[in-house]
From TrEMBL:
This is AAA ATPase containing von Willebrand factor type A (VWA) domain-like protein. Residues 773-782, 791-815 have a biased composition (Basic and acidic residues). Residues 1-37 form the signal peptide. Residues 719-742, 756-815 are annotated as: Disordered. Keywords: Signal.
Length: 815
């Protein structure tokens, strides 16, 4: 999938946005009646539009980006938490609504934290150029041929954390803006090399390694990470200033990474489909060839083996739209999915076929009663949570948990056919039984209570097998004569595309279904089925407030035990008599032959559908590009921006310069979009560096713009106007908002001159805007100056005197 809207360098876009932000600030300040005299009173609080945009230079050049995607992330972005700094600023705006010194102190603290976080974006120099010896650079260059020269130093910068704009286009643009860094390339090289050499840990003396290191080794070996690069032969003769250490060099494999940037995309729910649609671009387009993209979806709707929307991939792929996880080893070889979900979740572990209504009912019940996710061994989980809360958790504790299996037995993990990691949490509970088991199980968590559910538990095995037949990872065991067949989910086909028009259970395997379900319902007489639960009352519990008297009376009286024992023996005998008959039917040659013929017919029909699909794909219909363009146009229409957060909740903070800068930054990217409609009230677009006016080279223009913004601050001027108006503040804000709408139209004229590179014309247009506002808002300016001079009360007194005089004159005339 290619994208028709290339993303400009983010550093150039940030600097270009600063110039237009200054023009926006100038016109907005004049709109609300600000003057040079008024702005001088607030000069200490520098204009946020320019300072924010210029401070983005370092953050936007980060080589590691974390971009949360999904409905939850978009909601956070909408409420001002699109970035950590934005979240702090928004909390500060809320704090401004708290009266008194407490609110001011809280806001000051939050602003200080936000400023500290922004300052930390500059990064930490790990190895400055003057401390990197030539010998070290020579060794690294010899061992890692693809690594760039390190004589420029190595810096560690904080990752850029931001919620992208809505949809796959927003995710695409965010990842495209990452800048390369030698330190990140070295990190990927070391990480991938460690994965290749986990076997060497076995020869390291045990005293040098932590306990339970086997869990770490298993983790490194299990977790896939696709990194562009190559494994190099370290056994070659290297021209080094000293000999290599005396180790068996043939045991060591060194990976040399060609990637120098990392994009980590956590997603939730529909965000997984967002990432899946974008992933082919990361694999195919050259600009992402050096970007490692790690996508971590939770409840992924595009999980190939169960995502509710991934089921549409066979259809959507006909027109070039991918809706499932991709094989990240293809193309650039740079995409990896770590897909995490829960068993039976209707969003991400839905049944693989439309031919099993029981399985669909099970997933629907799980959506209505998510309490089935509480594990059966809740005591062990509670102990782990207690350790975490109390601070007693440590690396050794984590390793012990991983090695013990008490927690890991709740998780099924496998690397799918597409090379991605799939983890499925299985609580051990079946959603279909949750309406009957939730209340007794929950009460049993309390001390002194223990309530069994023999009635519903009797059907657990029967329903579990029936539900398993609706999933493509179902396995049939014990299908031979004299054995008990069982259908069990393997949870090992997370990366295999499901086909909803097929049945996971073949006709031949389906011959075993009646016997399997019958035996599951009857049970083994000990733990499963009717004979192991309902007809085994002596093993049931009914303890209330520490007393089991009622349970003994119900379950352990002589009559109940005798009758249950008789029925149990009768059913077990019936089971032993019928199983040979089932075996005879299952092994009947005529039936088996007919079932195989049906399976062959189904396979031929599936092949015909596949061939028809390939024929349609050969037509080259590709709607992925228009989809991305439409997504980007929609984001432009609703005012989408990289951060996406209004700075505050009040009408005053809605006019913050940070928000203005965000709109300008989006306008800069939108400048390249062909045929994209621009909303009436958008900020003017900014040209790229090198097209018309080169803002990167024209430092004088940037300095001039900053000075203009220093003199005219729209947010502070609006605050002054609101204070001045007193009890008329609400009316003033409404009037100001209307004026700002018109100001945007005048500002667009400034943007037009800037795009054409006519700085003089832009300056003249600003002057015309100034004159316009001065003429029309002279009264507001006078009132503002009067207040600053301390004569506002005198002015009000004069007004009152004038009103009294007019009233007296009126009364006189009336007389």
């Amino acid at each position: 999938m290619t994208n028709s809207v290339p993303t400009p360098p983010r550093l150039a876009k940030a600097k270009a946005a600063a110039v237009t932000a200054a023009a926006v600030a100038a016109t907005a300040a004049l709109t609300i009646g600000g003057t040079t005299a008024a702005s001088s009173a607030v000069l200490a609080d520098r204009d946020q539009a320019v300072s924010t945009s210029l401070s983005q230079d370092v953050a936007l050049s980060a080589s590691i980006g974390i971009y949360p995607v999904g409905p939850g992330a978009q909601i956070a972005r909408l409420f001002g938490a699109g970035t950590p700094e934005g979240a702090l600023r928004t909390l500060g705006s809320v704090a401004a609504l708290i009266p008194g010194e407490q609110g001011e102190s809280f806001r000051a603290t939050l602003d200080a934290l936000a400023a500290t976080l922004e300052a930390a974006q500059e990064g930490i120099t790990l190895l400055p150029p003057d401390l990197i010896p030539d010998s070290l650079n020579t060794v690294l260059r010899a061992l890692i041929p693809l690594l760039p020269d390190l004589n420029s130093g190595i810096e560690l910068a904080l990752p850029e954390i931001a919620v992208p704009a809505l949809g796959p286009a927003g995710t695409y643009d965010a990842v495209a803006g990452l800048e390369g860094d030698a330190g990140t390339q070295l990190l990927l090289t070391v990480l991938k090399s460690a994965q290749l050499n986990t076997g060497l840990l076995d020869v390291i003396p045990g005293a040098l390694l932590p306990d339970n290191i086997e869990a770490v080794i298993d983790l490194l070996q299990m977790v896939p990470l696709n990194v562009p690069g190559q494994v190099i032969d370290v056994g070659v003769d290297l021209d080094l200033p000293w000999p290599l250490p005396d180790i068996d060099i043939d045991l060591f494999e060194l990976f040399s990474s060609s990637a120098d940037r990392i994009a980590i995309i956590p997603t939730f729910g529909l965000g997984g489909t967002n990432a899946a649609i974008t992933a082919p671009s990361f694999l195919k387009e050259e600009q992402f060839a050096k970007t490692v993209v790690l996508i971590i979806p939770i409840r992924n709707t595009s999980r190939p083996g169960g995502g509710i929307l991934a089921m549409l991939t066979p259809l959507s792929s006909l027109v070039g739209i991918n809706m499932s996880n991709v094989d990240g080893t293809k193309g650039n070889g740079n995409v990896t999915f770590w897909d995490i979900t829960a068993a039976y979740d209707i969003m991400s572990d839905a049944p693989s076929t439309i031919f099993n209504p029981v399985a669909w009912a099970n997933s629907a019940t799980g959506a209505l009663m998510p309490t089935y996710l509480i594990p059966q061994n809740v005591e062990q989980l509670a102990a782990v949570v207690e350790d975490i809360v109390s601070g007693n958790i440590s690396l050794d504790t984590v390793l012990q948990l991983l090695a013990a299996g008490d927690i890991t037995e709740l998780f099924h993990d496998n690397v799918g056919q597409d090379g991605n990691l799939y983890i499925t949490y299985d609580s051990g509970n079946l959603p279909l039984l949750e309406p009957f088991q939730f209340l007794p199980r929950t009460i049993s968590y309390l001390p002194g209570f223990d309530i069994s559910t023999p009635g519903s538990e009797s059907f657990n095995g029967f329903l579990t097998q029936l539900v398993a037949m609706g999933y493509q990872d179902v396995n049939l065991t014990g299908a031979g004569v004299g054995q008990i067949p069982t259908f069990v989910r393997g949870f090992d086909e997370g990366g295999t595309q499901a086909k909803f028009w097929t049945n996971p259970v073949s006709f031949e395997a389906g011959l075993q279904a009646p016997q399997a379900l019958f035996n599951a319902l009857i049970g083994d007489g000990v733990e499963t089925g009717i004979t192991g639960n309902l007809l085994r009352p002596e093993d049931q519990e009914l303890k209330l407030f520490g007393s089991s008297a009622i349970g003994d009376a119900v379950y352990r009286n002589a009559l109940t035990v005798a009758v249950a024992g008789f029925l149990r023996d009768a059913l077990l005998e019936l089971k032993s008599q019928l199983n040979p008959l089932f075996d005879a039917v299952d092994s009947n040659a005529a039936l088996v032959s007919f079932a195989k013929q049906l399976d062959q017919a189904a396979a031929q029909a599936d092949n015909l559908l596949a061939d028809a699909g390939d024929s349609i794909r050969d037509l080259g219909i590709d709607l992925s590009g228009p989809l991305m363009d439409g997504n980007r146009a929609f984001n432009n229409l609703i005012g989408g921006n990289p951060v996406g957060a209004a700075e505050g909740l009040s009408g005053l903070s809605a006019l913050s310069a940070n928000e203005d800068q965000d709109k300008v930054s989006v306008a800069a990217a939108r400048e390249e979009a062909p045929d994209a409609e621009i909303a009436e009230e958008e900020a003017p677009t900014v040209p790229e560096a090198g097209t018309g006016a080169d803002f990167l080279a024209n430092t004088a223009l940037a300095e001039r713009a900053e000075k203009v913004a220093d003199a005219l601050n729209p947010r502070k001027a609006l605050q002054a106007a609101a204070d001045e108006a007193g009890d008329r503040a609400e009316k003033r804000v409404t009037k100001t908002q209307n004026s700002l709408r018109k100001a945007n139209e005048r500002t667009a004229l400034v943007g037009k001159e800037l795009r054409e590179g006519d700085v003089v014309g832009a300056a003249k247009q600003v002057g015309a805007n100034v004159q316009n506002r001065v003429d029309r808002l002279k009264k507001d300016v006078d009132n503002g100056l009067s207040k600053l001079r301390g004569s506002h009360k005198d002015s009000e007194k004069n007004n009152d005197d004038n009103k009294s005089a007019k009233k007296a004159d009126t009364n006189k005339d009336a007389a």
